[in-house]
Amino acid sequence: GVIGEESWFIPKFTAQADQSLLSHFGMAGEERRRDLADRFLRPTRWKDYCEQESPTKCIHPEGTTWDGDNHTIVAIRPPQTEQEERQFFVQGVYTGYFRKTEENDCDKWPTNCTGHFLDYPCGWSSYFIQQAHHLNI
Prior knowledge:
- About 25% of the residues lie in helices and about 5% in strands.
- It is mainly alpha-helical.
- Strands 1-2 form a two-stranded antiparallel sheet.
């Protein structure tokens, strides 16, 4: 049969910025809740980025690499199909964008705010909820 392994990981640049995240001990406890909510932002679908976050609504003069606020362009154009609208990343067109949402708001939800955790697709077995609970994350 097939053997698999479940594990958690963080990007290298995140680990370099906060080495306490290299172990579950660095994520545990109520005192870390706000830090995790501030660090692990929610991914944004391409359509939502263009409609809600982009200062230019993803419309740029050809050859432009900076938006109106002097940030690197995240999407070179708005999505053109329903499939594109739902994407979190499209090579060479939409680099992806992470943002705070209501779930990250520790002022509004001081005992229930969270950072984002990308889990397995629906239908796959995952023990993240149980592990996070027992590790006090």
